[in-house]
């Protein structure tokens, strides 16, 4: 007679995949009821179809939905251009839900010297990252694949595998150029082996479009990419969801040379603070997690088009702060709580129009992200992480 416990032991590993599939189907059906398509997914999918035919990728007539990724990413997306539109969306949505699970799982496993139970951290992380995760899924965005590559680089650093870490950061650049923020960290902490691997992947990706467009065509594509990214920055600075330092200063004192100079000075200061984290890395047993968590928080602050949902990458920061909560003095708990409110709970349906509008005009989410970074700095200087 088969023991019931033996049956459940065999079935249990299959439960999470089944749950993920069912949740994906249900969530996708709900989103399609609310909107006609995953708008951000359609941008690289359209670029993939153009790349397959050797057509121009960067077209001003595409308006707000111009393709802003590097040319190589259009080639990566070609498999999603083969099936019909809705089938491609369903496949991508299911992959996104799966990537979300892995991003949470790997970020939790990589957290060193964990003080808090796994269940508590999972639920609190879902609460704090829920706003960004919903937007990621609803828009069909690509921050989760970037997050997986970058947390993979953190785990590689923890395992002293500099080559893998550098290669993963290099691959991340082609998902979103934000990954470049980790290059100084690679050089200073992982050494030249990581930079060599990063450079090899970067060069290979930059040359990939040559296969279709030729040398001259590839250079034209790269020039058009730069033009598109720079020309579409200014119109988005005053958008509520833009939480970059450039947007923050523009909202406070109006766009212009002064705001740009203050944004540059603020960015330099945040990078200098990141350097101080590295100087004190010997004070802790495993320094890589907090250092990368800090730079992940900086991504939407430094990018001129840093939308609030890019804070999905700040998951390791949220986990680290929550896990060390009891070890922080009251003043820093208050600062962290304020950061949580300003970043995770500035939601229109929660705050309603007057308060939401006022907070977004004051760049509340930008201030919250800076407070997150400051809290991580405090944890390192106190030797807690």
Task: Give a short synopsis of this structure.
The protein has 385 residues and is mainly α. The chain is built from 17 helices and no strands.
Number of helical segments with 4 or more residues: 17
| Helix fraction by DSSP (H/I, runs of at least 4) | over 70%
Most strands sheet: none
Q: How many E strands?
A: 0
Alpha-beta classification: mainly alpha
| Unreliable runs | none
Q: Can you tell me the overall shape?
A: globular
Binned strand content: under 5%
Total number of distinct structural domains:
2
Which key phrases capture this entry?
385 residues; 72% helix; single chain; 17 helices
Give a structural overview:
This protein has two domains: 15-110 and 142-232, no CATH class; 236-385, no CATH class. Helix content is 72%, strand content 0%. It has 17 helices and no strands. 41% of the residues are buried.
List the helices and strands and how they pair.
Layout (H helix, E strand, L loop, with lengths): L3 H31 L4 H14 L18 H6 L8 H26 L7 H22 L3 H16 L3 H14 L7 H8 L1 H16 L2 H22 L13 H9 L3 H23 L8 H15 L12 H9 L6 H15 L3 H14 L2 H18 L4
């Amino acid at each position: 007679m088969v023991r019931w416990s033996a049956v459940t032991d065999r079935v249990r590993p299959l439960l999470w995949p089944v749950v993920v599939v069912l949740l994906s189907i249900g969530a996708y059906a709900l989103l399609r009821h609310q909107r006609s398509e995953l708008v951000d997914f359609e941008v690289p999918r359209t670029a993939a179809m153009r790349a397959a035919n050797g057509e121009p990728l960067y077209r001003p007539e595409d308006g707000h939905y111009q393709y802003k990724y590097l040319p190589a990413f259009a080639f990566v997306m070609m498999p999603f251009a083969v099936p019909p539109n809705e089938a491609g969306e369903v496949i991508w949505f299911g992959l996104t839900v799966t990537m979300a699970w892995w991003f949470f799982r790997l970020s939790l496993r990589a957290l060193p010297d964990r003080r808090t139970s796994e269940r508590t951290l999972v639920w609190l992380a879902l609460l704090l990252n829920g706003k960004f995760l919903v937007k990621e899924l609803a828009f069909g965005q690509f921050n989760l694949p970037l997050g997986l590559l970058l947390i993979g680089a953190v785990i590689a650093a923890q395992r002293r595998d500099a080559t893998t870490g550098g290669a993963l950061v290099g691959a991340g650049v082609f998902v979103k150029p934000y990954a470049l923020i980790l290059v100084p960290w690679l050089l200073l902490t992982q050494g030249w082996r990581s930079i060599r691997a990063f450079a090899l992947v970067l060069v290979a990706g930059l040359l990939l479009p040559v296969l279709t467009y030729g040398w001259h065509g590839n250079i034209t594509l790269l020039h058009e990419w730069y033009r598109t990214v720079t020309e579409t920055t200014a119109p988005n600075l005053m958008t509520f969801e833009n939480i970059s330092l450039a947007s923050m200063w523009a909202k406070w004192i109006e766009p212009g040379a002064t705001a740009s100079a203050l944004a540059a000075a603020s960015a330099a200061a945040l990078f200098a603070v990141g350097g101080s984290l590295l100087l004190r890395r010997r004070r802790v047993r495993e320094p890589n997690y907090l250092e990368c968590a800090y730079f992940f928080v900086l991504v939407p602050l430094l990018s001129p088009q840093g939308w609030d949902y890019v804070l999905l990458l700040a998951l390791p920061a949220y986990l680290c702060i929550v896990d060390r909560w009891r070890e922080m003095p009251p003043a820093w708990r208050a600062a962290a709580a304020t950061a949580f409110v300003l970043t995770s709970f500035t939601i229109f349906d929660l705050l309603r129009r007057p308060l939401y509008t006022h907070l977004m005009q004051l760049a509340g989410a930008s201030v919250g992200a800076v407070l997150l970074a400051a809290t991580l700095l405090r944890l390192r200087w106190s030797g807690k992480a």
